[in-house]
Amino acid sequence: MPKMDAAELSRMLGDWARPGRLLPDALAAGLLELIDAGFAPAGSVLPAQRDCAKALGVSRSTVASAFAELEARGYLASTVGSGTRVRSGRAAVATNGRLFSFTHSAPGVIDLSTGALPASEVARRELATGVSGLDDYLETDGYFPAGLPVLRQAIADRLTRDGIPTVPQQILITSGAQQATYLAMRTLVSPGDLAIVEDPTYRGGLEALRTLGARVQGVPLRSEGIDVDLLGHALVRRPAVLYCQTGIHNPTGTTMPRGTRAEVGELVNGAGTAVIEDCCSYDLTRGPGVARTLAGHVGDDLLVMIGSLSKLFWGGLRVGWARAGASRIRQILELRKAQDLATSVMSQLLATQLLRHAVEARRERRQMLASRLGSTQEVVREIFPGWRWEPIRGGTGLWIDTGGDVLALAEPAKRAKVRLAPGPSFSPQDGQRTMLRLPLWHDPQMLAEALGRI
């Protein structure tokens, strides 16, 4: 029977404590919602009461009362020595709640749980002008499963200018990078297959692997990138895929040195292991140019690169892309037809317009993030002087070591109407228990208010 970790339960419960409602009643209601939705399916084992109480920031008696209420109603069953299991409920929904924070916040809530940026000034300006070139497509059926040729060409040209020679046939346009990641993984991973990831890594990648039923092994991320020696040992197990970020890493903001990148390439080429490289943040370096990737170190027959326009322009466009060899692109293409047929023509035309201003958008984002990095660090040092972090090379957040149990911070923060992104969300084994990912872009006054509430 699957056993739920306390960090996983905390994520999926979300803002479970309701004003004016007793905590045991509110917790029981939150658990019942998870059971009814299939997120805690029949047969799954809940964390021990002591672990739940610690993770949720409540007394053990609160947890015991909530469990007892649901047991009396027939939803839970407790056995001495075996813990508490879900007795009845819907069929399982394959998720562990890592993306549950991507929902609209209630009024008064300050959301520090995501590093996603608001629209750039470049995007606001171009979006205000409207879509050009739409008339040429109105006589077609509007379905372009691989993407508009003009956008595929624009992305191929951009990658080529960035030092990654690319032709349009190597590009597939998707409805955001998360879809590209999921589809690429689905071409490579079957239920029960082993997938290797960095620990920590992007939580959306972990959620996709969980949905596909993969067994996930984390390899520690060091200051010089993934631990190459441990990666070599992991590849001996013949995993189906390595999912990694060697450019600007989410959530740590680090960059893998060229030498380490070459070692990783040599290892995966030798093992014949397919690689999905998340390159969504490679524009957001602190210096000139873009971050390097595994392109050139890993053959196109093994490497799938994932990119997005969300970081430079706006996530609301929902335009992402995958770059791979022609045969892999064909596989992904056929899978995406069954999912949503094609990405919006209007979004793709807007994306094509925006890419003409990519250099300007990079400059704007870097200036904004550099400024907010300074102000964010000042606020954090003032309010939590004991927190520590390593210098970052880019990206939209700080990876902070709080020195304590971050779940014990996140749960009271929910009740203070502040959403946080605890480290376990970014770990395949719900590790990183002292770490917190804090976004950079918030106004200093708002950030100070949020941390002050905590």
UniProtKB/TrEMBL annotation:
Top-tier EC class: transferase
A GO molecular-function descriptor: DNA-binding transcription factor activity
UniProtKB keywords: Aminotransferase, DNA-binding, Pyridoxal phosphate, Transcription, Transcription regulation, Transferase
Record SMART domains: HTH_GNTR
Keyword DNA-binding carried by entry: yes
Domain of life: Bacteria
E.C. numbers: 2.6.1.39
Domain HTH gntR-type positions: 21-89
PROSITE patterns linked: HTH_GNTR
Record-linked InterPro entries: Aminotransferase_I/II_large, HTH_trans_reg/aminotransferase, PyrdxlP-dep_Trfase, PyrdxlP-dep_Trfase_major, PyrdxlP-dep_Trfase_small, Tscrpt_reg_HTH_GntR, WH-like_DNA-bd_sf, WH_DNA-bd_sf
Family affiliation: In the C-terminal section; belongs to the class-I pyridoxal-phosphate-dependent aminotransferase family.
Protein name (record): 2-aminoadipate transaminase
Lineage of the organism: Bacteria, Bacillati, Actinomycetota, Actinomycetes, Propionibacteriales
Gene: lysN_1
